[in-house]
Amino acid sequence: MSNNKKMVDAITARDADFAQWYTDLCLKAELMDYSDVKGFIIYRPYGYAIWEGIQQDLNHRLKETGHQNVYMPLVIPESLFQKEKDHVEGFAPETAIITTTGVEELAERLIIRPTSETLFCTHYQKIVNSYRDLPKLYNQWCSVVRWEKTTRPFLRGKEFLWQEGHTAHATEDEARKETLDILDIYRDLGKELLAIPFVTGKKTEKEKFAGAIDTYSIEALMHDGQALQSGTTHYFGQEFAKAFDIKFQDENNQQQYAYQTSWGVSTRLIGAVIMVHGDDEGLVLPPYVAPTQIIIIPIQSHKEEVQEATNHLFKSLKQAGFRVSVDDSSKSPGWKFSEYEMKGVPVRIEIGPRDLEKGFVTLVTRYNREKHQVALNEVTSIMPQMLRSIHDALYNKAVEFVQENTYQAKTYDEFKAYIKKGGYVAMSISGEEAEVQIKKDTTATARVLPFDQTLITKTCPVTQKSATQTVWFARAY
Amino acid sequence: MSNNKKMVDAITARDADFAQWYTDLCLKAELMDYSDVKGFIIYRPYGYAIWEGIQQDLNHRLKETGHQNVYMPLVIPESLFQKEKDHVEGFAPETAIITTTGVEELAERLIIRPTSETLFCTHYQKIVNSYRDLPKLYNQWCSVVRWEKTTRPFLRGKEFLWQEGHTAHATEDEARKETLDILDIYRDLGKELLAIPFVTGKKTEKEKFAGAIDTYSIEALMHDGQALQSGTTHYFGQEFAKAFDIKFQDENNQQQYAYQTSWGVSTRLIGAVIMVHGDDEGLVLPPYVAPTQIIIIPIQSHKEEVQEATNHLFKSLKQAGFRVSVDDSSKSPGWKFSEYEMKGVPVRIEIGPRDLEKGFVTLVTRYNREKHQVALNEVTSIMPQMLRSIHDALYNKAVEFVQENTYQAKTYDEFKAYIKKGGYVAMSISGEEAEVQIKKDTTATARVLPFDQTLITKTCPVTQKSATQTVWFARAY
């Protein structure tokens, strides 16, 4: 078991240094590697496979609800980028700009898309003419570039992978409904695929997206008590349509501006999965997004009965549709146990000669490291229920964690104490003045205005003015 | 039928002006649109869906053969890009370069990847240490940027979408095998998905990839007799490994440089599909890659029996796994017929009250516009065979077209006459001197050295020197 120890020793303990634990895990589980340019990471096969799992699931949800995939150019002419005032102010400092080719300077500088509102708007301006052309429910999967100063794998990069949806509608109601429907889709993705209970709500004026009327967010609570904004949906009203002249003839032959939305989730979700479920042994992947759901490790694999049972079980599980692998390499079983725990594979199956004599194999569930003796011929039939129960256990544990770490503050002192402990703190405040003060005093930021806006106190504990809104605060990534 | 006429009139006849026909079709079938930056196109939903079909099919083939997807950064530091001499010479003029952000000049210029050999090599240098780490069979789906002067939708763009595979192996044999195995996979993709018979072979020294020892290609013959290079695979030997110091310890504890390959197909395949199968009515999509395989058009859809039959048939076909849609919009049937012919939907089903009285519906196969009366309750069960026979007919037609337009030239005059007619012309030449002369005289270029290198003549008809190789020439996109 010395190899086993060696691998585990290489990760920092989660509660000793959460940030270091996270970085260690990203590298040791072979999710990513650094490239030669700071902030641009390499998505290694195991990390990219998690992203492919997310893509596949979300793509299905989006197509079922009538969305279509497209691909817009990587570059935005600088003049086009500057058309919507708030938007350009929000993004201009973070842009990366192509000014030249290998042989000549460009006549107009080209911005690498930090987000593609301007491109979709230009296209909609051309193809939307009548109410019959609406809605347009477009989405694209791509990478974007934002020149962030502080970067961390998956959480904040100069380049990241995401989907960006951009829709145009004939009415405000329909566009507002889309903004909230997508928020529901994101929440369901969290619950059903990632085993993460996202808190949803509206962003404050201060925190909303550059150019949006309303921004909504899904927030996840990491093990260290910090929140992670994991996706956003934006209602734009007609602001972009006016800037880009996206007009259509309505049913009464009147010219109207379209109502628009945009929304996205990114590879940041991989970071959320790591920091919500991971432990000192490494990753803990929820089974429906795990690239490998089951790893079979034969013990004394030179023995014929072990080989036979391994092949038989592998085929049976694969045929039943599970993502299953066998590791019959020459490494020691202990090394392998440690390796697949590090990689967070939900179920490990140990097939050894002694168990086999009795017709059994040993299943170990990664999240709680519990051992289960299961009859060889029952493994495949119990597997759907086993994965389901693992998923549910992870989700319920994460729900409990949110509940245990969500507080209501009636005084500013209470608020500060809770924020220090970590987690969400709900407080009713007077508005942006209080929000700014809170950030200055505690580094906590407004995560969301929950949909239930019941006031906790009538007076804002920070400014002593009338409380107008209830806000969930947290320190955040 | 006046609407019908109007739509069709908008496309240039294919034999009148093939280039214009192509552009008309790309726009009218709503495959793409132009953006504000020349050479960067918008992939509209219908065009992007074709790409998604290609991705899905090829991804499956690659994963089945042990390849893994990754994602490398969008940008390459200029110093890294310059590490392999031939490679940089080939690509440097076409590069787009980020020199600044919204707030400051970059310390080192960053090249937008025109291809990612240098990035994969840098990564392999870090992660390959032992023969046990090999082979590495990585692939990525992404967009690349090459600053081309002349651009055409899907065929040649400043940005295009593709997959690029990059592999590292312990032996030359294994790497050479990979190069040819992937060529076979590409050929199978053509035959089984796109109904295109790709001609395969090696590129001449003159035409090979910058940095490669050997380049292989799949070539397709367009309706106008011009060839289209549709994908390439490259054997690099150890050249990149030496430039990037990718060494591993072999089984005898000796340090060795790795042997590498790379290979790619791009959205150019969409252009091939258009130009191989399309006709004067528009696109003709092979059924297995068609985003919509079957379009159901109810005639007099207000009649209850028509509605019922439509719903019933739609559900039945969808349940059976076909990509099927219903168009019950208020447009005239004639308009719809024309629209879906333009879009190349393989099978149209017309459901009208008169046919229904007899228990029939009318199926029209797009490629030959033949009508088939089929009993309503047999449509779903005959559909697999119908799609198969459409696919086979398209493929066989394309094979015949290649056969009819492939010539052997024993004299240079013969050669020139054939090239003028269009198609492939095989000739045995002395080498690069002849190749250069041929291009100068006829604009034809060497497409491939076929695997069967039997000489047609002993003397090169161009230089009168000894013939050393048999080459297929064609004018090409």
Annotated CATH topology of the largest domain in chain A: BirA Bifunctional Protein, domain 2
Helix content of chain A: 25-40%
CATH architecture term of the largest domain in chain A: 2-Layer Sandwich
Please indicate the count of domains of chain A.
3
Class per helix and strand makeup of chain A: alpha+beta
> What is the CATH C-level name of the largest domain in chain A?
Alpha Beta
Q: What's the story with the biggest beta sheet of chain A?
A: 7 strands, mixed
The global form of chain A is globular
Radius of gyration of chain A: 25 Å
Strand order of the largest sheet of chain A: 3-7-8-14-11-10-9
Q: What distance lies between the first and last C-alpha atoms of chain A, to the nearest angstrom?
A: 37 Å
Integer average pLDDT of chain A:
96
Q: State the low-pLDDT regions of chain A, or none.
A: 1-5
Oligomer: homodimer
> Total number of helical segments of chain A?
15
Instruction: Report strand % of chain A.
Output: 25-35%
**Total number of strands of chain A:** 23
Chain pair with largest interface: A-B, 51 and 51 residues
The CATH superfamily of the largest domain in chain A turns out to be: Bira Bifunctional Protein, Domain 2
Question: In terms of topology, how is this protein built?
Answer:
The structure is a homodimer of 477-residue chains.
Chain A: H1 2-9, H2 18-28, E1 32-34, E2 41-43, H3 45-64, E3 68-69, E4 75-77, H4 78-81, H5 85-91, E5 96-101, E6 105-112, H6 117-127, E7 136-145, E8 159-169, H7 172-194, E9 199-202, E10 214-221, E11 227-237, H8 239-244, E12 247-249, E13 255-257, E14 259-266, H9 268-277, E15 294-298, H10 304-319, E16 324-326, H11 333-342, E17 347-351, H12 353-357, E18 360-365, E19 370-375, H13 379-404, E20 406-408, H14 412-421, E21 424-429, H15 432-442, E22 445-448, E23 469-474
